[in-house]
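tool_call: predict_structure(chain=1)
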Amino acid sequence: MNFITRITSIGILFFVAQGCEYFNTTTITSKQIKDQSLWNDKDQAPSFDDCNYLEGEDNLTCFKETISDNISYALSQYDFITSEPLDQEVVFVIGIDLEGYFSLVNVEDEYDVISKIDSLYTEFESIVANLPQALPAIKTNVGIKVKTQLKLPIRIIASPQE
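tool_result:
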């Protein structure tokens, strides 16, 4: 009976030792997470259906040109009223959410153009919100949609109304 007890004890010890590998945890450092989160060439940038047939940089160029054309057209419909002549650049910071909808995150306005034209910021917000829905960006190494931002410089030219 002593022999059976020994064999059983050795068997139990063997199974416990083998099972310990399942309790090992791997730690992922914040640097590894940050490295994997950085945008790379394999990731899929946001796009529009009309641009989706293009690859890489051509797709991104088409995407940006579509946004720029839409914004330029909308701004051309707006009658700027200002007390002084303007020919300055502002930079739109545009956010694209997980569903492909656009929002105005910020306007980088070094020359304070927004304060010189009535309701310009509100108009910018409306123009960006009315951009057509895009196909969101995809982080391919994890296969999920991600929020993105892009910067789009816009030149504002206005003459004083008499």
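agent: The two ends are 111 Å apart (CA to CA). Proceeding to next step.
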